[in-house]
Amino acid sequence: MATHNVDVCESWNGSPGDQVNFSNSLKINCIVTQNGSNPWPFTDNSPIIVPPAGTTTYLKPAGQLPNGSYPYGVDCCPTQGLKIVTVP
Asked: How many domains does the chain have?
């Protein structure tokens, strides 16, 4: 298992079971949400609140998170659009 320090407004790569430390430099709470019926890759339920101090979650374990791309929404990013975690 690896630890990823991820800006909440960026897409990134990870592996099942990895720790995710979301950071947030926007000075407001950001809300990370499931995108429609796409699989949710995190162990915490949607939504995940990411305050300016940041928050920690984990990717689901290998048996629940096959290789693929997992889009999710973030409500506060200057560049709108989905963010994606890619699991190799």
From this structure: 1
Q: Which two tokens stand for residue 14?
A: 């990870």
**What is the chain written as a DSSP string?**
--EEEEETTS-EE--TT-EEEEE--SSS-EEEEE-TTSPP-BSSPSPEEE-TT-EEEEBPPGGG--SEEEEEEETT-SS-S-EEEEE-
DSSP letters of 38-55?
SPP-BSSPSPEEE-TT-E
pTM of the model: 0.94
* Interatomic CA distance for residues 43 and 17, integer angstroms: 9
Residue 45's pLDDT band (boundaries 50, 70, 90)? very high
**Paired residues of 33 in beta bridges:** 73
CATH assignment of the domain containing 82:
2.60.40.420
